[in-house]
Design goal:
This protein has four helices and nine strands; from the N terminus they run E-H-E-E-H-E-E-E-E-H-E-E-H. The protein is an alpha+beta fold.
Amino acid sequence: FEKKQKDFNTQNHVEMAYNAAPLEEIVPVFAKILGFNFYIDPNVKGTVTMSVDSNLSKKDLWMVFEQILLFSGAYCSLDQDIVHILPLSMMAQERRLGSGFSYEANVSVVLFHLKSAKSSDVIQQIKPFITGGATLIDIPSSNSFLVVETPSNMPKLKTIISMLDTPVRAD
């Protein structure tokens, strides 16, 4: 999305205030300001209470938009010129992720190969730290696991997994 915007870093005054507004009313406002077409999956629900009165770039406003979606249990993916807004529970089913198409989504897929810890143990230990709708897939034959998660949560998970995958010292 950012690549398609010419003035993505230019600051503009943004003023909006909402009190428990349905997500379906908020998305068109962001779409008009940021200049995108959209589709909202019927399973995406939520309300937004927010107040913004500040100079923001379109990049900053896009980040606010992604946070609103995340708080509402949703994520977005860009397919050509349409932003698809989908429930987090569908992240693992993202159909074109990694397929070579010109495509963007706020979904990360990372394969972790463990050196010291057992993959099934690490999966159990990181479950409290994953986003609702994220997916963990154990691959015991290679002591690895696959994580499908929001990009904003991935650095935290990488840090925790690194801490858990350290050799146990014998005292």
